[in-house]
Amino acid sequence: MRILALKSFHADGGWRPFSFLKITTDEGLVGWSEYSLGIWAPALPEVIEALESLVVGSDPRSFRKITAALQANTRFAAGGLNQQAISAIENACIDIAAKAANVPVHALFGGPIREEVDLYWSHCGSFRARDRDYFEKTLGLPPLMDLKDVAPLAEEVVARGYKAAKINPIHFTAAGPRLLNPGFAPGVDLARRLDGASLAAIEAQLATFTEALAGRSEAMLDLNFGFSTNGFIQICRHVAHLPLRWLEIDSHDPADLAQIRRNTQTPLASLEAVYGRSAFAPFLRYKAADVAIIDLLWNGMGEAVRMADLADLHGVNVAPHNFYGPLADLMAANFGASVPNFEIMEFEGDDVPWKYELLSQPIGVRRGVMPVPKGVGWGADIDEHAIAEYPWPRR
Predict the structure, then answer these.
(1) Which fold has domain 3-102?
(2) What is the pLDDT of residues 86-95, one digit of tens each?
(3) What is the end-to-end Cα distance of the chain in Å, rounded?
């Protein structure tokens, strides 16, 4: 079996595109993967296309050999776009390898370890606040405009059966809600400072949310790269009295992240922006995180499983970084079925109603739980006719 060609497809994901890679072979088997085309990766399709000549003619079942060769050719610029492109290719090859063996992907890695995975609602309310018109007018979802809207949102979490929900810090002002994330917002504060008003706003939002949940579901707070190390420590201390499943904080420095962890009794989740075991290992040695978040689309399924095994040696559970589209949900569930130290799966509770129409068969998500796929490969293919119905960019 040999790879013939690679082709990218993009579908309307509402406030972002859903991007997919298709690999065709000379024996008729087709492999699919999903990748993330965001502001952080604006030329990713072009990088994938540039790597195509290095994989055409290869046997996709030898996906580790393909990945090793691609990494060797990009070693002078490892990580970043190159690694994300390699991972998209590897993941599509893994889909083919599983189909050739007539098994689900998780069976290639010794699964299934479990039959279903718990979900948490990610970015809970965040996009309703940021993109009010789209969510209210197009999706018919209630807005999040004021602190008084936070409690009804928590009730929605409970009613929909989610085991946990993750919010981003929001400052509700007279001019409307404002996401508090200067680390991702150029021009707001490049020094990523934390002022008293922002600290009070974070505490008020989180206190309202946890009080409304009343122990029926767990709360998480995601701070991303939003603040300096000192600012993160201030927030950790300020919200220490609130019941949280975890605080999520990103840092490229294991010593800094370990310092933050030492200053909070709340479990700390991190590492979603870390590529590969070589970068991952120092964070484990520094004991910088209680939960290791691993991005399957950026690392590839093979490396993600090896990273999870490494975390397991350090007594650390893992969770997939998964704020993507329909195929990524299947990929994350396969990951959850492949590793023993799986914590919980990130899931976009607010999404476009046609999300799973893009798949060849539906996903049985129900009340905060996703069943592990039983079909071959990832469990479903991408429906190219559906993509044509929901193109990106929009017509």
Answers:
(1) Enolase-like; domain 1 (3.30.390)
(2) 999 999 999 9
(3) 38
CATH placement of domain 108-379: 3.20.20.120
Q: Tokens in use for 151?
A: 């409690």
Q: Where is average pLDDT lowest: 156-170, 188-202, 232-246?
A: 188-202
Contact between 211 and 185 under an 8 Å Cβ cutoff? The reply is: no
Q: What is the pLDDT of residues 27-55, one digit of tens each?
A: 999 999 999 998 888 899 999 999 999 99
H helices of 227-324, where?
229-238, 254-262, 276-285, 296-299, 301-313
Q: Which residues contact 262 (CB under 8 A, 6 or more apart)?
A: none
Q: Which residue has the tokens 């479903």?
A: 380
Torsion of CA 65, 68, 70, 76, to 10 degrees: -160
pTM of the model: 0.96
Check residue 138 and give its pLDDT: 86
Ordered by start, the domain boundaries in the chain are 3-102, 108-379
CB 306 within 8 A of CB 276: no
Of residues 175 and 49, the one with the higher pLDDT is: 49
Token readout for 49 is 């296309």
- 10 Å CB burial of residue 130 (0-12, 13-18, 19+) is middle
Judged by DSSP in three states, 6 sits in strand
Count other C-beta atoms under 10 Å from residue 111's C-beta.
19
Higher pLDDT, 29 or 133: 29
Query: Which two three-digit tokens encode residue 40?
Result: 């952080």
Q: Which amino acid is at 121?
A: W
Rounded-to-integer distance, Cα 334 and Cα 68, Å = 22
